[in-house]
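Q: Given only this backbone (761 positions), what sequence would you predict?
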């Protein structure tokens, strides 16, 4: 059996050996500290304990993600949600889908329980790995168009997660209209507390993580090393995975006004994939045998694989010319390569109501992305007005290649396909000879250069924001098709999409002294059209797809306790999208038999959101969110025109409460629980929801229950130890997160149980 047919042993990789050695260092240091402390004493580091007590979620008052300046969130005229490190730890979040479980307007798990990517939607539109719009420290992750080659960043290395809702093109260039997520990395801090965490989950995955730093206040050199390793099972039977990363960083205070931080990150994922194409019968629709279990694996253990290597390196630079003007720059190179193999469903269940036809697929991807963002911020006054002026230019470039191999879409008797499988009692029969049937090769490059300007004006209690950006972008792609015998068609001519776009935003907010801040704003976004001039009847190139949003709301930051409330209403539209040109039919393309398209499509989402993060008394924190969305495919040229969008529920709601006993016999004990509700969503796929099809038009709503318990031993003893138990989806509710066809449905995450022990010194 080849290495590609079985999950690679993580312990044999250079990364795992390095992690094992590094994990031993803090253990030895902790043991030495305990041995050197006199009886009854707590050692020299007791005074730092308060910094790691996870008993309240302090509201993040400032964030740079929305405006690229240090602006209070309560005075930012748009919806921004920030999940701080303390909240990530308390809720035990290990990926972006888990991090955003209690954020308004975010629909999670677009691809179900998927250990490869972080796919989700914000305000009705794709915004996760699939969109290519997620960023790390303000710079874009691998661009879209890279097939299955996307990956994700380990949240243990994040200081916070910033969810920016609505169009954000002025700051970030081409981006989805619904919003985006910026992941902010941990960087060196003076007098940093050292952390070691060991854990195990209910699927048998053991993990070890550390966060180590060096340097004190006043030092010109600060260091930090963050890492995590995990190895074991997953929600899906027979699927195991190994995962690990190392993230070194170094800050050099070159001069009093000049600072440079170098960032590195290396990550490996090896093993199987939890992503499966499941039949609608047996998941969304019961058969006469009921529903298949949400742990069932219907692939082949010797074939299904997810192996990925991701690394990036870059810097954060800042120089203050004086008290008014500051220059900063962020730069990074990121590389990602992956191998994905799966046995997927081919059609719906067979006539016996329990057997599923299958075929093999395989994808290899390789992506490199470079990005540089340079900014000049000036603070000055003109009469009674105070200005924060931002002038910036950013550039990014990416190139990618992808190979996609797939077996034939044929009858179950075709010897080139794996044998059909019983979805209720699976028997794994191995792989046939003759794979693949076809091979699709592709590649491309993309570049974008943008210049942007933003002025934030403070005039008494008024806050005005106006910004504009101009982008030049170019995408080039090519494809090639081969058969299983290796005979290839000529490589296609390179298709070039070249365009430019202007985006703007404007916002007005009034900051009352009592903490209320009503606001109204308008923002735009753009994305290159997926169609080229070859797809139009007269050869006219397609303009960029535009996003436009009007938002009005009010924020409230009370003075009497720690908290932030945001109430927002919005009208969000995606315009100029490519839709079928019904006037000209199938007369486009090289052979004159492909459908023509016209850039006249429009999608609309209207909604209202209420979100709150509060700590009204010491030790008690509450997170609440309610969302109401009304979506419509306004113009599409299809039978779905006038209907709602897929995976956009009418209602969503969540509530999380966390309480730590401050005194008495239960001092140091924390109890937390939460509920998440996702409303009914429409299924939009060819042949579904149409009279006579026999299949439902909607995915039912579902409500999930989470809980956590922690015990901070430092509150009652001399031990710097935190014990925690986090449980997600306590009832192990089986639910379908989304469907796109009768052979492509996805189960959401079932019950997860994670126990951790965290030492600090």
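A: Predicted residues:
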């Amino acid at each position: 059996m080849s290495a590609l047919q079985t999950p690679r042993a993580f312990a044999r990789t250079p990364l795992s050996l390095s992690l094992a050695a590094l994990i031993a260092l803090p253990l030895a240091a902790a043991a030495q500290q305990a041995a050197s402390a006199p009886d009854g004493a707590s050692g020299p580091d007791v005074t730092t304990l308060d910094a790691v007590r996870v008993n309240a979620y302090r509201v993040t008052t400032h964030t740079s993600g929305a405006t690229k300046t240090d602006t209070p969130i309560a005075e930012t005229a748009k919806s921004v949600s920030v999940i701080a490190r303390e909240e990530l730890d308390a809720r035990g979040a290990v990926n972006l889908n888990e991090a955003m479980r209690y954020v308004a307007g975010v629909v999670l798990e677009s691809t179900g329980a998927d250990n490869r990517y972080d796919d989700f939607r914000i305000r009705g539109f794709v915004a996760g790995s699939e969109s290519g719009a997620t960023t790390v420290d303000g710079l874009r992750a691998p661009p879209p168009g890279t097939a299955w080659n996307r990956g994700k960043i380990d949240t243990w290395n994040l200081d916070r997660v910033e969810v920016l809702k609505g169009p954000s093109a002025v700051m970030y260039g081409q981006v989805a209209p619904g919003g985006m997520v910026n992941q902010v990395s941990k960087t060196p801090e003076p007098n940093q507390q050292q952390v070691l965490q060991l854990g195990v989950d209910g699927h048998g995955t053991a993990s070890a993580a550390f966060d180590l730093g060096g340097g004190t206040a006043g030092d010109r050199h600060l260091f930090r090393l963050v890492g995590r390793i995990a190895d074991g099972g997953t929600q899906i039977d027979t699927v195991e995975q190994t995962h690990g990363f190392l993230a070194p960083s170094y800050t050099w205070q070159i001069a009093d006004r000049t600072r440079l931080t170098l960032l590195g990150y290396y990550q490996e994922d090896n093993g199987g994939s939890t992503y499966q194409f499941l039949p609608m019968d047996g998941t969304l629709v019961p058969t006469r045998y009921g529903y298949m279990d949400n742990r069932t694996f219907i692939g082949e253990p010797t074939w299904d694989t997810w192996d990925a290597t991701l690394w990036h390196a870059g810097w954060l630079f800042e120089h203050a010319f004086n008290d008014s003007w500051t220059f900063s720059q962020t730069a990074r190179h990121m590389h990602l390569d992956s191998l994905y193999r799966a046995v997927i469903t081919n059609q719906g269940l067979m006539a016996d109501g329990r057997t599923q036809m299958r075929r093999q697929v395989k994808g290899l991807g390789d992506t490199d992305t470079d990005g540089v963002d340079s900014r000049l911020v000036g603070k000055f006054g003109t009469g009674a007005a105070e200005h924060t002026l931002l002038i910036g230019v950013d550039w990014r470039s990416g190139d990618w290649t992808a190979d996609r191999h797939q077996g034939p879409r044929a009858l179950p008797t075709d010897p080139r396909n794996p044998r059909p499988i019983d979805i209720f009692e699976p028997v794994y029969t191995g792989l046939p000879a003759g794979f693949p049937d076809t091979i699709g090769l592709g590649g491309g490059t993309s570049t974008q250069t943008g210049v942007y300007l933003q002025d934030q004006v403070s005039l008494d209690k008024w806050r005005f924001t106006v910004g504009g950006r101009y982008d030049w972008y170019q995408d080039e792609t090519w494809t090639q098709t081969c058969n299983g015998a290796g005979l290839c068609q000529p490589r296609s001519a390179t298709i070039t999409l070249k365009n430019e776009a202007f985006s703007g935003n404007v916002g007005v907010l009034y900051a009352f002294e009592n903490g209320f801040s009503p606001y109204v704003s308008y923002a735009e976004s753009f994305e290159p059209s997926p169609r080229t001039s070859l797809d139009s009847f007269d050869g006219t190139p397609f303009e960029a797809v535009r996003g436009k949003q009007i938002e009005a709301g009010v924020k409230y930051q009370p003075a009497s306790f720690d908290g932030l409330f945001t109430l927002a209403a919005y009208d969000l539209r995606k315009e100029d999208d490519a839709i079928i040109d019904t006037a000209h039919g199938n007369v486009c393309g090289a052979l004159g038999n492909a459908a023509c398209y016209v850039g006249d499509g429009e999608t609309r989402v209207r909604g209202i959101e209420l979100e709150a993060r509060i700590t009204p008394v010491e030790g008690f924190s509450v997170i609440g969110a309610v969302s109401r969305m009304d979506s419509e495919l306004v113009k599409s040229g299809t039978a779905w025109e006038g209907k709602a969008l897929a995976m956009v529920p009418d209602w969503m709601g969540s509530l999380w409460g966390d309480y730590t006993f401050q005194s008495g016999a239960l001092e140091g004990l924390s109890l937390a629980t939460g509920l998440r509700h996702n409303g009914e969503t429409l299924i939009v796929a060819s042949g579904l929801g149409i009279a006579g099809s026999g299949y439902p038009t909607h995915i039912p709503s579902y409500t999930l229950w989470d809980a956590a318990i922690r015990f901070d031993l430092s509150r009652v003893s001399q031990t710097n130890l935190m014990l925690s138990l986090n449980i997600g989806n306590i009832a192990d509710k089986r639910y379908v997160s989304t469907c796109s066809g009768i052979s492509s449905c996805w189960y959401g995450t079932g019950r997860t149980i994670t126990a951790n022990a965290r030492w600090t010194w």
